[in-house]
Design a protein that fits this description.
Jelly Rolls, single chain, about 290 residues
């Protein structure tokens, strides 16, 4: 089995997205400075300390999953809005009207945690069998510590984004996403993967930021995770990304057809639905392309 492809930090979004569509996963090395990851870990430390371990083997009984990062960590907002990641997400999910922030989670896999079950993240959508090659998620896992095979680097099956659905695999069928702190693994919701076993004495920490098409529900409820008083302080583009925008022609409006952005930014008031003709043309183009 081939390993995961590594690209330099100055790679073009087109290059990254081509490999992502082909393999289902790709690593961009050293996309941010290691010190940036250290600063986020320090900012989140009180939240890490307060987060309980997972309640089952899938979430990890020696693993902590700390969410709500847009509200809790101003530094994480820059990672959520990273230009290369947003550009790649837009290309992978370009069959949709728009995409949104799906979840934010710092995953700390403790020493002694066994390997996670190999799965597809898109199974979160009630195990709906999306057509092969039709992606609804673009995921990122940023290395907040070095990722090694020993400390539980995420395990991936390259090319499995084009496999049949609901298959079963073991860790032996995968390769480790080893990377240095500040690097990022981009992977689709359709690729088979799972957290690796942590056989070291240290905790492996990854920053999981995921995006999905705007007509599907977000895994993390951003409207409740980000209190309104904090939402009102955020940049407009981040507000739209966490869900204060229409998901398609007639998805997500507020009461009398108001644009959801108006709830937090009344100065951006815009009445009515979206562009019906543009939405129909997009759907027709996608059907013709299949």
């Amino acid at each position: 089995m081939r390993g995961l492809e590594h690209l330099p930090a100055d790679s073009l979004a087109e290059t990254v997205s081509e490999i992502l569509k082909r393999d289902g996963a790709v690593i961009v090395d050293n996309l941010v400075e290691p010190q940036a990851m250290d600063a986020i870990v320090a900012e989140l430390q009180p939240w890490f300390d307060a987060t309980p371990f997972g309640p089952d083997s899938f979430s990890g009984r020696r693993t902590k999953r700390t969410g709500g990062l847009v509200a809790r960590s101003p530094l994480c907002r820059d990672i959520v809005m990273h230009p290369l990641v947003l550009a790649v997400s837009g290309k992978l999910l370009d069959h949709s009207h728009s995409f949104q922030l799906h979840l934010t989670q710092a995953i700390a896999i403790g020493a002694g945690e066994p390997a996670q079950t190999i799965h597809r993240d898109q199974w979160a959508f009630d195990f709906f069998p999306f057509p092969r090659g039709y992606d609804v998620q673009c995921n990122t896992l940023w290395a907040m510590t070095d990722f090694t095979e020993e400390n539980g680097a995420t395990r991936v099956i390259p090319g499995s984004n084009l496999f049949d659905d609901k298959l079963k695999f073991q860790s032996e069928d995968t390769v480790p996403a080893e990377m240095r702190k500040g690097s990022v693994l981009l992977y689709s919701g359709s690729v088979y993967h799972g957290g690796g076993a942590n056989r070291s004495t240290a905790t492996r920490i990854g920053l999981n930021i995921t995006y999905n098409v705007s007509w599907l529900r977000q895994e993390e409820n951003q409207y409740l995770s980000v209190p309104l008083e904090i939402a009102r302080t955020l940049p407009v583009e981040l507000l739209r990304l966490i869900g204060y925008q229409r998901g398609a022609y007639a998805l997500g409006y507020v009461d009398d057809l108001r644009d959801p952005i108006e709830v937090v930014r009344p100065d951006l008031k815009k009445l009515g639905l979206g562009d019906l003709q543009a939405s129909q043309a997009r759907a027709q183009n996608q059907t013709a392309a299949r």
